[in-house]
Design a protein that fits this description.
379 residues, Rossmann fold, 40% helix, Ferritin
Length: 379
């Protein structure tokens, strides 16, 4: 697959020749198991995107006969081998969505409904040549939708190459999710050298980089905490306290901290589309009130989309999409008018029987660009 991807994109393979598929399939028995194990170990130590995908990988098929059967099944699967990059990427995304729907797996917490992502990207309208960041990227939904939105804007090969390998940037705190995201990007033809997605706590420090566009859905839950799984399988919870000079207010509210982080990483004329729960809009206290005041005074917070309940894998979530633009420092208040589109009141959605569809947000997208009112929208 890697060789075909490289040929389609006109690039060199990111997999070293000694560890590619063609070498692996030549082996049998213990030699196959040995080659497979050594391949995983080597690629896990690689730099860039390949190292991110194969990080901590290990062989779970110790029986050489079973391993050979799996390798043979993959190698003989002509339809899969012949599919182009976009189709393979779409299949992988489908598997991620199916996994997210299995509530017990817990994967739903990293999954934003595709219609919401699509609407945000169409409204923010990232342009080729701009840099895009998702500081809570999950499996890469926002990054890939932005990529698909931008790649048709130019036929220039150099600009498209820069789009694939330099425009998209993602961060996630969960190691396994970062690997899923890296593979998702790779199967869509994004990245080949340096990894566009990195594992880490985006809130830990100002990364120094600034982006024209930020598209993100920070994780739900008010407290900044995460779980650490030890080698023995034991799980401990860790709390993070963020002390950053660029954070004007100290708070344990994770979404408010993400909002402060986005304020920092946006370019001086950058724009953002961010999914945030109701508590960000209404939480009392010095931090909540102060951050909202900063958003209104120093940014052009121009649009609020109220999303319906029942569209998330976490039940009962009430969320909104905040659209705002950063402005250079000024004494004037930057938000002159906030346009609100209510798609929550009298709207009832469920994950299985009445899921959110792309067409459900078409009216909002049209109103966003035309700034007109409908019976579902009000100022």
């Amino acid at each position: 697959m890697d060789q075909e991807r490289s040929e389609l994109l006109g690039e060199e393979s990111a997999i070293p020749p000694e560890w590619n598929w063609a070498v692996l399939v030549k082996h049998d028995g213990e030699a196959l198991e040995r080659q497979y194990r050594r391949t995983l170990q080597a690629l896990a130590k690689a730099d860039g995107l390949i190292g991110t995908i194969f990080r901590k990988s290990q062989n779970k098929l110790s029986d050489p006969a079973k391993l050979k059967r799996v390798v043979s099944l993959i190698d003989n699967e002509g339809p899969w081998i012949g599919l182009d990059v976009d189709v393979k990427g779409n299949i992988y995304e489908g598997l991620l969505e199916r996994n997210a729907s299995e509530v017990r797996s817990g994967a739903g917490q990293y999954f934003t409904p595709p219609p919401v992502i699509d609407a945000i990207v169409k409204c923010v309208d990232p342009r080729i040549g701009e840099t895009i960041c998702d500081p809570a990227c999950g499996t890469g939904g926002f990054l890939l939708t932005a990529f698909e939105h931008m790649k048709g804007q130019s036929q220039d090969r150099d600009r498209l190459r820069k789009l694939r390998h330099g425009a998209l940037h993602g961060v996630d705190i969960v190691d396994e999710v970062v690997r899923l995201c890296a593979m998702n990007l790779y199967l869509h033809g994004v990245g080949n050298g340096d990894s566009p997605v990195t594992q880490g706590d985006a809130l830990a420090a100002d990364p120094g980089d600034r982006y024209k566009v930020v598209l993100t859905n920070p994780p739900f839950g008010k407290k900044s905490s995460y779980q650490v799984v030890g080698e023995d399988g034991s799980v401990t919870s860790e709390r993070e306290t963020y002390e950053r000079d660029d954070f004007k207010f100290t708070t344990s509210n994770k979404q408010l901290n993400f909002l402060q982080h986005i304020m920092t990483i946006l370019d001086s004329h950058g724009r953002a589309g961010v999914v945030l729960p109701d508590n960000v809009l209404f939480e009392a206290g010095r931090a909540g009130e102060g951050i909202r005041k900063r958003l209104l005074e120093q940014f052009n917070f121009h649009t609020l989309l109220r999303l319906p309940t029942g569209i998330w894998y976490s039940p009962g979530v009430k969320a909104n999409v905040l659209f705002f633009d950063k402005r250079p420092a000024s004494r004037e208040v930057q938000t002159r008018e906030l346009w609100v589109y209510d798609y929550r009141t009298n709207v009832h959605k469920t994950l299985k029987t009445k899921p959110l569809m792309h067409a459900d947000l078409d009216d909002f997208i049209g109103c966003y660009h035309q700034r007109k009112e409908t019976e579902c929208a009000f100022r």
